[in-house]
Here is the input.
Amino acid sequence: MNRFSRFVAAGIASQRLRSRVSGPCGVCLEGPVSDEPGPAGTLAPAEQARLLAIAHEAFTEWQHLIAEALRREGLKPARAKRLAALIVASVEGTVAMCRAARCVKPLDDVQEELQILVGCALRKTGAP
Here is the structure.
């Protein structure tokens, strides 16, 4: 398994948190909010807050795991944190693209580009 795959695999553990979310996907959590029962797709404020907290916890954990792996490979903490955020955002955005396109090509393309980016970042640190 190459380095990039290990970094992304480290974040898979956070997927267990997502399994607790029953309802809209993370990108849809800031939709219409209502205290009253209403049309499908509206969330009560308490439910929205609960789902946002779960999503925040999952993304934070995943970013932390990836940043730690990047730091172990020699990146400075600030760079590792930024790169981890980019990886998480890229993968999550690509999931939405894959769903819309009904194919995995966007994920394959993003993985290839992130592998190049991570490889360049690690080479600059002198990591093997």
In short: Residues 45-72 form the longest helix (28 residues). The helical segments are 3-11, 15-18, 45-72, 77-101, 105-125.
